[in-house]
């Protein structure tokens, strides 16, 4: 019975993953790691987790020691900071036991933006396919999640642990939990629009973004958890255990149009229409680079394992996903 450590338990994915694990594998001891002390009651009474540990992503020693005590570690909370993955992996390598530790990591399609700064669709941009190991080998720390991904791929190839990476497109939808997390994708987009005072797209906004509904992502993540636990030994490279999942590509202009209308109707923004702006006026930090670019990912390997997007488009979902959220 593999013991499982879940990092990022209170986010968009974590509550569902933890409930699913205790429902389908009640005999797998589950430890949940999070920093919000008010979440204890939920994990004790609803999830029925076996152990709760409070800590932050910055507590490298605590995280490493905990990882060392579990056979399976699922990180559904941190994909940007390589230090978190380093701490987890260092701990997993110290684990005493016959079987290798298994790391299941959630990464993001932000890695695959094409670097355009004019907001235009480019039909010749590279499409990053999980079936092509050469594509995955090119993942590097200059990419949004690439620092952590690189650390994990290297550890997987070195062979001391088994690694599985599910790389999800921008994730929408809502998942039942008392913590009402919008997920990092929505948090970035809505936070950016609110701080600008308008909803931006760049140029003609024809550039496309890959998206996935959280239910479709979770169904696949559950499949990978079962697969990873069943595979006692792995052959092949760590790149061959990388899975891209997305459901639909939408243009930034279409997305901004629905987002602007929704934020306006909630009384958060004065305009119900989005604004076409140059890159410099599309927000702070990494966000403009995302909005101005194309994100083209393809998941042939994930599809071969049965991945299929079933949920409705993000363009239909935005109003209901944001309906009950207090900005
Ligand atoms: N949502 C997307 O569009 C998307 C797309 C691709 C990949 N991803 C990646 O998938 C993973 C899950 O995303 P998500 O949208 O489910 O994330 P999320 O809802 O933002 O959840 C993040 C989780 O991490 C916790 N957390 C954040 N900073 C922390 C810290 N310093 N110490 C301890 N805990 C901390 C949060 O806890 P609190 O509740 O205490 O804040 C929360 O449980 C992330 O790695 C994300 O980058 C997300
Ligand atoms: C990672 O750790 C190094 C060394 O402790 C530190 O200098 C760096 O700021 C950390 N990176 C992040 C993203 O926190």
Automatic annotation (TrEMBL):
- Signal peptide residues are none
- Point out the coiled-coil segments of this chain: none
Q: SUPFAM superfamilies, alphabetically? A: NAD(P)-binding Rossmann-fold domains
Top-rank taxon, per record: Eukaryota
- Record GO cellular component, one term: cytoplasm
Q: Name one GO molecular function term.
A: aldehyde dehydrogenase (NAD+) activity
Q: Which InterPro entries match?
A: NAD(P)-bd_dom_sf, NAD(P)-dependent_oxidoreduct
Instruction: Give the protein name, as stated in the record.
Output: NAD(P)-binding domain-containing protein
Q: Which organism is it from?
A: Oidiodendron maius (strain Zn)
């Amino acid at each position: 019975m593999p013991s499982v450590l879940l990092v990022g338990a209170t986010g968009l994915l974590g509550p569902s993953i933890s409930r699913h694990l205790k429902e389908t594998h009640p005999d797998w001891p589950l430890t949940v790691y999070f920093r919000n002390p008010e979440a204890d009651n939920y994990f004790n009474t609803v999830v029925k987790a076996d152990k709760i540990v409070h800590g932050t992503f910055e507590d490298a020693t605590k995280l490493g020691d905990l990882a060392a005590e579990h056979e399976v570690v699922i990180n559904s909370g941190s994909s940007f900071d390589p230090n978190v993955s380093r701490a987890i992996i260092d701990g997993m390598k110290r684990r005493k036991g016959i079987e290798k530790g298994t790391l299941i990591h959630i990464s993001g399609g932000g890695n695959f933006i094409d670097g355009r700064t004019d907001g235009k669709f480019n039909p010749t941009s590279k499409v990053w396919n999980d079936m092509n190991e050469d594509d995955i080998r090119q993942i590097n720390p200059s990419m949004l999640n690439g620092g952590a991904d690189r650390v994990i791929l290297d550890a997987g190839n070195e062979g001391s642990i088994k690694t599985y990476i599910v790389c999800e497109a921008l994730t929408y939808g809502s998942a039942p939990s008392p913590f009402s997390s919008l997920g990092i994708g929505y948090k970035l987009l809505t936070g950016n629009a609110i701080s600008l005072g308008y909803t931006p797209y760049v140029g003609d906004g024809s550039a496309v973004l890959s998206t996935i509904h959280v239910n479709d992502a979770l169904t696949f993540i559950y499949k990978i958890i079962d697969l990873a636990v069943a595979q006692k030994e792995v052959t092949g490279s760590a790149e061959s255990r990388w899975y891209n999942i997305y459901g639909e590509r939408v243009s930034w202009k279409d997305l901004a149009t629905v987002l602007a209308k929704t934020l306006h109707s909630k009384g958060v923004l004065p305009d119900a229409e989005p604004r076409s702006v140059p890159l410099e006026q599309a927000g702070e930090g990494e966000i403009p680079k995302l909005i101005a670019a194309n994100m083209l990912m393809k998941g042939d390997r994930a599809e071969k394992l049965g991945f299929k997007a079933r949920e409705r488009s993000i363009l239909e979902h935005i109003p209901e996903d944001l309906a009950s959220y207090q900005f």
